[in-house]
Design a protein that fits this description.
- This protein has 71 residues and is mostly helical.
- It has helices spanning 24-27, 41-44, 48-63.
- It is globular and about 50 Å long.
- The termini are far apart.
- 8% of the residues are buried.
């Protein structure tokens, strides 16, 4: 069996890429494609502080009808 190290995901927002509710292309990376749910931290690689920010931005985008609540 091959031994390999899994590389730690880096928070994109700590790296300097902001998430804004008006930018739908970036927001879509943080929601699931089948049901439209917000992806968890272990899948997005975001830190806890920025995951909360992502959740708020997704909710704002849903409220402004930029993305649907469900698929």
């Amino acid at each position: 069996m091959a031994d390999f190290k899994k590389r730690k995901k880096i928070c994109q927002m700590c790296a300097g890429k902001p998430v804004d509710y008006k930018n739908v292309d970036i927001i879509k990376k943080y929601i699931s494609s089948d049901k439209g749910r917000i992806l968890p931290r272990r899948m997005t690689g975001a830190c806890a502080r920025h995951q909360r920010h992502i959740a708020n931005e997704v909710k704002k985008a849903r409220f402004m009808a930029l993305i649907p609540f469900v698929k």
